[in-house]
């Protein structure tokens, strides 16, 4: 894996090589990563791996024709062959009126902000094994836990660099750490499983393995002896670990490519009241130590915090340069990409802002409803917004958490869900997409 400076030099050289060979414009991406991970089960080492790899990608343009290619071979001969291959592919490609680099005048410039994404650590396999062992042991130590799917721990470091023929060159490096445990409670046909997991950019920010494991065990035991739900219309509370999926559906619906294809249920909603007043959804690429933080996007544009939903109103699409041209707008700095292929739009650190009521206050106001802690299946139509997911969780009876429920279905339409959604006050930044507990006052609930 190259250093950030060496990676930036490498992509600059490849872009220049493409220009000299006849490309009208080009950009190049380098991605390098090393990772170490292992898992234990019942206290014994089950799997260990360490990998290191790198890839470089080139996208070039000849008029309105473009082609992309990639290689894991960084030698001079391989890169020369990659340029020749891309030029030959572009000659056969159809013309695309929306093809091209990001607008030159919008490219990022100046010093990179300090996002503190790299703690410089590379823990040993022994240290990772101990972290995994402790997490699993804590989970197995919870009364009612009868078996284990194992504990795991990992550490990684990655470097990314992008250069364009219009003058942008940038690079970044980040570390990442994770720890998890998954266990089984109960016996026979009544067994239930659950997990605990956490990841962070800095090793020091990881939750303790004891807390992660204990949470996994307690979650599994709490799911024992599920009861059946009487079908009907009722309030549905989404736990934070599943409420984030609602933000994922929003992200897909306001993606510039979906809007350009006219395949979004929010097609005509820009500037409209989509959520209730008071609801705000933010995208913050500049959060220090954020799991998706970045100071430039996949096309070399600067990133900036944005209010995607402001007081319930949809304020913007998320658009890379190609979809922005189709829509007649400027790109929004949301381009994401790997080493191969063209950019597409996606969020960075996306989150639903906290509301005023606590989770306990929302539960206290529900006479009959369900708290969802797990979602199953992919029954969401991005064109119509129709929503139907398998789920499990807990009944809410007379303002209190009741017995667990399993194999239920929750259904509605995302437009109606967004319009009535209420966020709780328990927002914590733990993932790339974060949400507090979310209350949907009315959904159809049935046994699966």
TrEMBL record:
GO MF annotation, one: metallopeptidase activity
GO process terms (BP): proteolysis
A cellular-component GO term for this protein: cytosol
Metalloprotease TldD/E C-terminal domain segment(s): 231-446
Pfam family, one: PmbA_TldD_3rd
SUPFAM superfamilies assigned: Putative modulator of DNA gyrase, PmbA/TldD
Domain Metalloprotease TldD/E central stretches: 120-224
InterPro entries: Metalloprtase-TldD/E_C (IPR045569), Metalloprtase-TldD/E_cen_dom (IPR045570), Metalloprtase-TldD/E_N (IPR002510), PmbA (IPR047657), TldD/PmbA_N (IPR035068), TldD/PmbA_sf (IPR036059)
Domain Metalloprotease TldD/E N-terminal: 26-90
Gene3D superfamilies: PmbA/TldD superfamily
Family: Belongs to the peptidase U62 family.
Protein name: TldD/PmbA family protein
Organism per entry: Sphingomonas rhizophila
């Amino acid at each position: 894996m190259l250093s950030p400076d060496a990676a930036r030099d490498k992509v600059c050289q490849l872009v220049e090589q493409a220009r000299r060979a006849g490309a009208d414009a080009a950009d190049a991406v380098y991605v390098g990563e090393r990772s170490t991970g292992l898992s234990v089960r019942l206290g014994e080492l089950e799997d260990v791996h360490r990998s290191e790899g790198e890839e470089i990608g080139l996208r070039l343009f000849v008029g309105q024709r473009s082609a992309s290619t990639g290689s894991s071979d960084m030698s001079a001969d391989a890169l020369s062959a990659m340029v020749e291959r891309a030029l030959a592919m572009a000659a056969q490609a159809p013309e695309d009126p929306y093809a091209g680099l990001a607008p030159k005048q919008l490219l990022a410039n100046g010093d990179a902000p300090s996002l503190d994404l790299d703690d410089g650590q590379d823990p040993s396999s022994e240290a990772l094994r101990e972290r995994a062992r402790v997490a699993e042991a804590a989970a197995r130590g919870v009364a009612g836990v009868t078996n284990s799917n194992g504990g795991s721990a990992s550490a990684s470091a990655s470097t990314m660099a992008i250069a364009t023929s219009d003058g942008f060159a940038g690079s970044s490096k980040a570390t990442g750490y994770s720890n998890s445990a998954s266990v089984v409670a109960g016996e026979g046909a009544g067994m239930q499983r659950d997990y605990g997991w956490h990841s962070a950019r800095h090793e020091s920010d990881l939750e303790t393995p004891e807390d992660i494991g204990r949470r996994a065990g307690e979650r599994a035991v709490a799911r024992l002896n599920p009861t059946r739900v009487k079908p009907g219309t009722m309030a549905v509370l989404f736990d934070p670990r599943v409420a984030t999926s609602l933000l994922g559906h929003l992200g897909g619906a306001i993606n510039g490519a979906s809007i350009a294809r006219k395949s979004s249920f929010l097609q005509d909603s820009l500037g409209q009241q989509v959520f209730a007043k008071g609801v705000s959804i933010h995208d913050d690429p500049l959060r220090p130590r954020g799991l998706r933080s970045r100071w430039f996007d996949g096309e070399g544009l600067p990133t900036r915090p944005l209010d995607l939903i402001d007081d319930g109103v949809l304020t913007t699409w998320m658009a890379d340069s190609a979809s922005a041209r189709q829509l007649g707008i400027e790109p929004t700095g949301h381009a994401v990409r790997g080493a191969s292929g063209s950019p597409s739009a996606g969020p960075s650190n996306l989150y639903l802002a906290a509301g005023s009521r606590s989770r306990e206050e929302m539960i206290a106001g529900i006479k009959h409803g369900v708290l969802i802690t797990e979602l199953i299946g992919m029954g969401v139509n991005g064109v119509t917004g129709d929503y139907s997911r398998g789920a499990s969780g807990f009944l809410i009876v007379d303002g209190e958490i009741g017995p667990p429920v399993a194999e239920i279905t929750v259904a509605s339409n995302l437009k109606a869900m967004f319009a009535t959604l209420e966020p709780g006050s328990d927002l914590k930044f733990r993932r790339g997409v974060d949400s507090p507990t979310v209350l949907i006052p009315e959904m159809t609930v049935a046994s699966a």
